[in-house]
Amino acid sequence: MRAGDAFTPEQLYDIERAVRYAEEVSGLHFSVYVGGADSETRPFALELLNELEDPDGSVLVYVDPAGRRLEIVTGATAKRQLSDHAAGLAALSMQTSFATGDLTGGLVTGVQQLGDHARQAPLLHANEPHKQ
Amino acid sequence: MQGVPARVRGVITLLSGHTLLVFVGIPALVVVVVALLVFASSIASGPRYRPGLSWWAPPVWIGGPDLNAKPDPANLPELPAGPNSATASTGVARTTGGASASW
Q1: B56–A4 CB contact, under 8 Å
Q2: What SS3 class is residue B85?
């Protein structure tokens, strides 16, 4: 790890893999931001969400390690798949890991959990309505 | 060493190179090896996050529009007011959900 980097390449790979997994099972876009906020964390996380290509279909996980704050923001469409209650459960598990100093573990577990909660049920025989 | 008393000669012999090596050198070596084994992993992994202490690293954005730069809030585009917007008249906020936590 170079001095000044938040994560080692292995840790980054683990987080990116969790993000890809969550995106595959949910069909939503997931994004993770780790860094300080210029203002209050919630408005800042909302600004980050709106920077994304498809804010409505995105889930942003914002972690402020210095301020010890975590924000999970879901877009308008994503909110239908990922309820606030499910996001709260994932936040709880992340919070536990972060409190012990395990940023990577918390992010990986939390993002996977968010993806699982937002999982879309497979639509069977959607292209064969006459056989249903 | 013929004029030196026998007791002093014994002390000099005790402090000779071999004795020092055995009684000081080897324990010191063992201490250094154990210390290296203990701290090797943390030295290799670099500084780690400790809650409550200051954060040293630049921002990281995975799955963001630009991995190298943190967006400047002053340059953010104004949000369009869509049909899902909570405050469609002002176009400032969308209907969003989520959760918050602190540790």
Answers
A1: yes
A2: coil
Report the length, in residues, of chain A: 132
Termini Cα distance of chain A: 56
| pLDDT tens by residue, A79-122 | 988 999 999 999 999 999 999 988 999 999 999 999 999 887 77
Q: Which residues of B touch A73 (CB under 8 A)?
A: 96-98
Domain ranges of chain B: 1-46
Distance CA A4, CA B58 (A): 7
Q: Please name every residue paired with B47 in a beta bridge, in sequence order, or none if there are none.
A: none
Predicted confidence band of residue A61 (pLDDT cuts 50, 70, 90): very high
Starting at the edge strand that comes first in sequence, how are the strands of the sheet with A58-64 ordered? B60-62, A29-34, A58-64, A69-74, B97-102
Longest CA span, chain B: 107
- Residue A19 near residue A113 (C-beta atoms within 8 A): no
Using an 8 Å CB-CB cutoff, list chain A residues near B47.
Answer: 1, 3
Structural domain boundaries of chain A? 9-119
Inform me whether the C-beta atom of residue B95 falls under 8 Å from chain A C-beta atoms.
yes
Q: How many CB pairs under 8 A join A and B?
A: 156
H or E segment at B97? strand B97-102
Separation in Å, CA of A96 to nearest CA in chain B: 8
> Is A9-119 CATH 3.10.310.50?
yes
Question: Among all residues of chain B, which has the CA nearest to that of A92?
Answer: B101
CA angle A74, A79, A84 (to 5 degrees): 80
Q: What residue has token string 């390449």?
A: A9
